[in-house]
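A student in our group prepared the protein record below, which I am reviewing. Thanks in advance; the entry in question is below.
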Amino acid sequence: MESREKTKESLLEGLGEGVRFNVPLAPYTSFRIGGPADFFFEALSPWGLIKAVSVSRSLGIEFFILGGGSNLLVSDAGFRGLVIKNGCTALLTNGDNPGVQSGFSLNELVDKTAELGLSGLEFLAGIPGTVGGAVYGNAGAFGKSIGDLLERAVVFNPDKGLETVDRDYFEFGYRSSKLKRNGEILISTSFRLEKKTAEEVKRNSEEIRTLRREKHPQNQGSIGCFFKNIKEKGKTIPVGRLLEQVGAKKMAVGNAAVFDRHANIIVNRGGAKASEVRELAGMLRDRVREKFGFVLEPEVVFLGEEPDAT
């Protein structure tokens, strides 16, 4: 890898004046936690996104694609590579199978499809982040997942280029997709939805949002549920219930604390550090393992440090 100053010059040459340096990442995450990225670039088109990835690879720089930052914990030391902010936010089609670029807001997509009287995505109402992040982690709730509705997509493989694929390509599982394993990048996607009245879809979406507002923090930094639910013998065991039984709601480390309405949510009470979140998460994991024998798996994506540091 080149020296830092030489890397700066090479990035400016390859990507232009849009490259920024030492950019604090906390404002770009819903946790409001994290140190700076050495290099930062916002890609406003698929070609800009592809170029940023290609330039990073050619320079030997580690890169990270940042969507809405709603499922991300950045280390206190930050990230020593290039953060590429996905600013690809175009709505591509308005028909019965709406298509969007991967940086499109998930909540905006829910609202847009409701306006068009297209049903299917209501269960995602109130979940922050981007469509790309949701597909990457197969986001879901109430027994449904976004992967159930995906029809076609365009993905970018840094070694092979662009490819149009269908739903089966992603090998969706519980909070997982092929993208987590092969490093490919979602460029755009379309969904197969059902036609209903706009009023009905809007009403259903608002009911889901109301439920989320009752259970999730509104004014504190958070990423939602920290740990994945447990899948065992075809059944789902809600981790929040296990955590409640081990006294999680009374636990805190520094300014990182368990939310008082949901034991599987960690909140930033103001000025929390990533190290405090990780320490608290480790304590929660230990208590569940000691009492129930289950090893909890985080839903959160860790950036800048190894996730086994807790």
Summary: Helices lie at 4-15, 46-59, 106-115, 131-136, 179-182, 198-215, 239-245, 274-292. The radius of gyration is 20 Å. The chain has three domains: 4-86, 99-199, 219-294. The first helix runs from residue 4 to 15.
